[in-house]
């Protein structure tokens, strides 16, 4: 599967912890991330990640373009709902695209864990 990993600044630590916990299952998939999130994950794991631009510089839109072209299978987007984001329209557009193209999207750690656990279960079959 092609999986996008995105995290707002206050959620990057959570994303790193999550990817470390599920590193084995994630290593079987093609991973994409926005710039800083991808860098932080790469520094903490052995995962190979294609990095797009930072979210505010168009990374969210780059991932959205992949969704619209049928080139993304899952999105993990750990959002910070308590901090205003300068690129909020891009965030909203990405969420809308995931709905339009029926791409599984987790916007919090609990939902991301459920999706990753399902990937683990599928790998056992």
From TrEMBL:
Active site: 60 (proton donor/acceptor)
PROSITE patterns membership: METHYLGLYOXAL_SYNTH, MGS
Keyword Acetylation: no
Database matches in Gene3D superfamilies: Methylglyoxal synthase-like domain (3.40.50.1380)
Keywords attached to this entry: Lyase
Ranges of residues in domain MGS-like: 1-125
Primary enzyme class: lyase
Catalytic activity: dihydroxyacetone phosphate = methylglyoxal + phosphate
Pfam families: MGS (PF02142)
GO MF terms, alphabetically ordered: methylglyoxal synthase activity
Enzyme Commission (EC) number: 4.2.3.3
Positions contributing to substrate binding: 8, 12, 34-37, 54-55, 87
Free-text function comment from the UniProt entry: Catalyzes the formation of methylglyoxal from dihydroxyacetone phosphate.
Family the entry assigns: Belongs to the methylglyoxal synthase family.
Entry-linked NCBIfam families: MGSA (TIGR00160), PRK05234.1 (NF003559)
Protein name: Methylglyoxal synthase
Gene it is expressed from: mgsA
């Amino acid at each position: 599967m092609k999986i996008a990993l995105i995290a707002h600044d206050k959620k990057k630590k959570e994303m790193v912890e999550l990817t470390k916990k599920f590193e084995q299952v994630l290593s079987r998939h093609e991973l994409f991330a926005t710039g800083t999130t991808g860098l932080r994950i790469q520094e903490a794991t052995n995962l190979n990640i294609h990095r797009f631009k930072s979210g505010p510089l168009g990374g969210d839109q780059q991932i959205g373009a992949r969704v619209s072209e049928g080139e993304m299978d899952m999105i993990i987007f750990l959002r910070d709902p308590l901090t205003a984001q300068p690129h909020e329209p891009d965030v909203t557009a990405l969420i809308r695209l995931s709905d339009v193209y029926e791409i599984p999207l987790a916007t919090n750690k609990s939902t991301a864990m459920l999706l990753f656990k399902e990937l683990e279960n599928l790998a056992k079959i």
